[in-house]
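Teaching note: in complex prediction, the entire set of molecules is handled at once rather than each chain in isolation. The prompt given to students was simply: 'Predict the structure of this complex.' The entities are:
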Amino acid sequence: MSVPDLPLVEIRGLCKSYGLRRALDAIDLDVAPGAVTAIVGPNAAGKTTLNKVLLGLVHPDRGTIRFDGEDTIGRIAHRNRIGYMPQAARFPDNFSARDVLTLLGDLRGTSRPRDETLIHALELEAFMDTPTRVLSGGQRQRLNAAAAFLFTPDLLLLDEPTAGLDPIASGIVKDRIRQIRQDGRAVVITSHLLSELEEVADTVVFLLDGRLRWTGPLATLLHTTGAPNLERAIAHVMRGDAMSAEVD
Amino acid sequence: MAAVIATVLRHEARSLRRNRGVIAFGAFQLIVTESVLRLSGSAPRALSTLLNLVLLVVPLVTIVYGVISWHASREFNELLLAQPVHRRSLFAALYLGLVLPLAAAFAAGLLTPFVLHRAVTMDVAPLLVTTLAAGVSLAFVFGGLALLVGVHVDDRLRGVAVSLAIWLGLTVAYDGLVLLVATTLSDYPLERPMLALTLFNPVDLARTMIVMRSDAAALMGYTGAVMHHFLGSSAGTVATVAGLLAWILVPAWSGRRAFERRDF
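The expected output is the structure of the full assembly:
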């Protein structure tokens, strides 16, 4: 486990382009342990690319990422300490929920303890042996969430975690996120639902056109902008950007 | 690497009974083999009929099923890549996880009727084994091509269209083109260029491999006949096996390189 006052993840000068489009432009960012970091921004802002670069799914053009002090680019060991919940919950048709969780566990090995809290809380036992092709979208998303939390990760990357979940399941996942923060682990959430992020986020990272426009504690963002909630605060920052652009 | 491949294959094997595509392919092969055996009356004649089916159906099923299942598993593959596994290991596991069940379904569908009819005699066994080897080799070749298409073409429909074009080109158009060249330039000594052209087509190589055993060169396409005439049995077998091996390794290797470099 990392020293509490050091960031778990340090990103410096991260750049990624797809052709002429800059998806990430010189991003510097720290992810602290024991905190929930919310990455927000409009479509094509670079949120998902940032998540995928952290996981090694996307190769950056430039920059460094350190996980617990270790360089991660081109390496895989740190992924044993990361739980990932992708936005789309799709699994092979012929696999059951149990197959999915067992396969992920086998690929990771047995070095980390299992956290089956969400399997029980989200009532996955009822369909553990059902082929995923006959599960509803909500059931698949519950499996998606359980898989991300299962291996007691030090860093959780959640991409639209409550999309497709019913209010009860959504509440259970949010409670689990708070619990993980209390345990001193780090959570990074990407979501369009700013009101939901506001419930759990400590730090806000606002991306626009691949650039980091604002980062800091949620309370500071609300105080600085004078906005009553995250949605208005982000709108305030975006309007400020637009005005600056007009002045330029 | 071996541990990742073994893990993925073990899970594929466990869930095989729910894999409808593979089961359907095995059942199709079984029904066709059984029907041909019953209708033809003799095992050698049945194998001659099955040869052309094997050369057309195995490539078609493998490349189309491979591309479709690649796109269906794209999000799950991303989840697997987020685990502590090397990309090259995962690619090898996905490749074998695609090809081995299809090859096993083909083998079971082909062999079962022959065994049940007690048709595996000393006369038939070499040709049966060669047909089996040709079909399995084509599954590996077209499985590699399927993943190569899957890695390069993001859109599923375009991927299927490209895979159908590859299948059509290698199974039908190529031999037609070779025949056209041969008839157009019939005044020139074309045997050696024809032989070289055979090596550029895995379906022709598989066909030639069987022709070597069946002495039915005249029935099995122009390039097969040329191969048989010029190389003779043992040298021809070595050349076809080497050619097929290259056809297995090059697409799989190219697919792996693209898989390692691409962004997901």
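Point out the following to students. The interface with chain A takes residues 4, 7-8, 10-11, 14-16, 18-20, 72-76, 78-86, 261, 263-264 of chain B (CB under 8 Å). Chain B has a mean pLDDT of 88.
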